[in-house]
Amino acid sequence: MPVTPDQQAEIDALRASPRQTLRAVSDGAEKHLYTAHPVLDHGFVRLIDYMGDDAAICQAARVSYGKGTKSVQNDEGLIRYLMRHWHSTPFEMCEIKLHVKLPVFVARQWIRHRTANVNEYSARYSILDREFYMPDPSQLAAQSTINNQGRGASLTPDESARVLDILKGDAAQTYDHYAEMIAEEGPDGTPKQGLARELARMNLPANIYTQWYWKVDLHNLFHFLRLRADAHAQYEIRVYADVICNIVADWVPAAYGAFADYRLGGAVLSAKGLACLQRMLKGEEVTQETSGMSKGEWREFQGVLA
Ligand SMILES: Cc1cc2nc3c(=O)[nH]c(=O)nc-3n(C[C@H](O)[C@H](O)[C@H](O)COP(=O)(O)OP(=O)(O)OC[C@H]3O[C@@H](n4cnc5c(N)ncnc54)[C@H](O)[C@@H]3O)c2cc1C
Question: Which residues form the active site (predicted)?
Fold first, then answer.
């Protein structure tokens, strides 16, 4: 379950107590504040706070005193210009703080993005919940034969069932051992010492859930989303990135629109790729052999054109 009834009551209480402010307010972000958007089987993404809006990006770019906005169209044009020309610092003037619940193996990929501030749930201090990511059978696939870092054909139903049995059995067993190691009473109620939580956690598998608060500026968030909302990213982190994309699209619609156009939906061509495209536009038939590109580069180039 992503949130318990008690946690939902806390979220509802926060959403029921609006306050007055002189700060920039994004109506699109306000509708997400505190709400837990479910991801995977037990995870979620919650918007906890944000700073700035589309206008704040333009204010910073123009170093203006007031709103500095000439019109919404002007702002959108400026934002698209900034994005197109990699003038990134105005985007750093907006920030977002998220509460994320995610499996540990997803957190390991996520934490590689160093340009964020993170505070993680302490498994030295607290007892971890018995919550493990169990993939949907549709996500259980064999190792890809063309991409060493990916998955290929789906497993057969029998093979999926066998894998899920193993995952469930291992999760149950390791959590039982964790609970047994930290327990301060034996099964018959006799007091015992119990192992420290910081040590007992070491045998828990990487599909157990952790949680953190994650704060990042919009420029670095776009970099994260560019990599993790991409089709090449692992499904289990991509679903989180997709949810964050939806929140950002509501928070800063013009900036997200420019990002979706130039980065997410756009493509970067190498000099060789550009030369091939120019030859093709002139009517020449170009093949991998005549392109000057490796097989992998050619495959990716064709993927861009398709
Ligand atoms: C598809 C995919 C596969 C991957 N596979 C692997 C893998 O097999 N093994 C692995 O270890 N990682 C892997 N990674 C992680 C990847 O190498 C990056 O660590 C991760 O994507 C974070 O990117 P980043 O460093 O650009 O982001 P951030 O840490 O947020 O940094 C943003 C930018 O800030 C600058 N920056 C930040 N810190 C420094 C620094 N110390 N020095 C110089 N510049 C800095 C850089 O310009 C950087 O691009 C993979 C990532 C992806 C998307």
Answer: 228
